[in-house]
């Protein structure tokens, strides 16, 4: 039987090993999952440990749990992938967030490109902030579900030009369907043999413009193709991450 897993910013048990869960988690346990006293759950805070707990009290819609076991998780990920992803249609963008989190992405940097269809309010309106909160929630829930020890970072959306500047801290690849000479696999095979932090740029539904590719190449971002087929943006992101872990792990 699978035990439900939840992320908390901070986990502090009292001297008796008891912890009161936040309202949101308590409500989910009580009303969504229909948990009762003595049912078990797992909580984590991104520090590299899972804490197995047991519900010992439900009062005023708040669950209190008791510490049972501390479980060490494997946090030795030698490959850190940051996905720089264009703001595509919302449902597809959210699929990319969920699946890339499950695959082990380190961070997300959304950006606006010239062909982005979905545009978030660049002035951080309340609607924009609500969307960002939703996206962070999707990432957190995917992390809880897949059992990873941490939560990927999610940065506020930036322009394509700023995204390119942000990527200069480590080796970066931009996926481009019109790249005829260089395949992603060959680029990754040249990197084997050491620990890596890698940035992957994924474009919008209409792809990157030639000017955007020129800008990326001019500052050292290497363009590469995933193959002969034209993939959706979210599929390209998932495929690229899988390729990176396969070739470099």
What does it look like?
It is a single chain. With 249 residues, the chain is an alpha/beta fold. The protein folds into 2 domains: 5-72, Ribosomal Protein L25, Chain P (Beta Barrel); 79-248, SPOUT methyltransferase, trefoil knot domain (Alpha/beta knot, 3-Layer(aba) Sandwich). The chain is built from 7 helices and 12 strands. It has helices spanning 23-32, 90-103, 126-146, 160-166, 184-189, 210-218, 233-248, and strands spanning 5-7, 18-20, 40-44, 49-59, 62-72, 79-86, 107-112, 153-154, 158-159, 171-175, 196-202, 222-224. Strands 6, 7, 8, 9, 10, 11 and 12 form a 7-stranded parallel sheet that branches. Strands 1-3-4-5-2 form a 5-stranded mixed sheet. Strand 3 (40-44) and strand 4 form a beta hairpin. The longest helix is centred in the middle third of the chain and has 21 residues, at 126-146. The model is unreliable at 122-127 (pLDDT under 50).
């Amino acid at each position: 039987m699978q035990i439900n897993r939840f992320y908390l910013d901070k986990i502090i048990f009292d001297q008796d090993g008891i912890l009161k869960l936040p309202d949101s988690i308590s409500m989910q346990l009580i009303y969504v999952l229909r948990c009762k006293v003595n049912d078990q759950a797992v909580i984590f805070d991104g520090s590299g440990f899972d804490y197995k707990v047991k519900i010992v009290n439900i009062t005023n819609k708040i669950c209190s749990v008791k510490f049972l076991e501390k479980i060490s998780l494997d946090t030795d990920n030698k490959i850190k992938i940051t996905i720089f992803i264009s703001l595509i249609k919302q449902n597809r963008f959210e699929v990319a967030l969920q699946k890339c989190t499950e695959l082990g992405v380190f961070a997300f940097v959304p950006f606006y490109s010239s062909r982005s269809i979905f545009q978030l309010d660049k002035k951080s309106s309340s609607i924009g902030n609500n969307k960002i909160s939703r996206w962070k929630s999707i990432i957190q829930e995917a992390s809880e579900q897949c059992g990873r020890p941490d939560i990927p970072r999610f940065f506020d959306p930036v322009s394509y030009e700023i995204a390119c500047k942000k990527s200069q801290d480590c080796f970066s690849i931009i996926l481009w369907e019109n790249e005829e000479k260089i395949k992603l696999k060959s680029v990754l095979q040249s990197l084997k043999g050491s620990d890596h932090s890698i940035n992957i740029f994924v474009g919008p539904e209409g792809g990157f413009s030639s000017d955007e590719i020129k800008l990326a190449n001019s500052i050292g971002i290497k363009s590469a193709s995933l193959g002969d087929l034209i993939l959706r943006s979210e599929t390209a992101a998932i495929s690229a991450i899988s390729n990176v872990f396969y070739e470099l792990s």
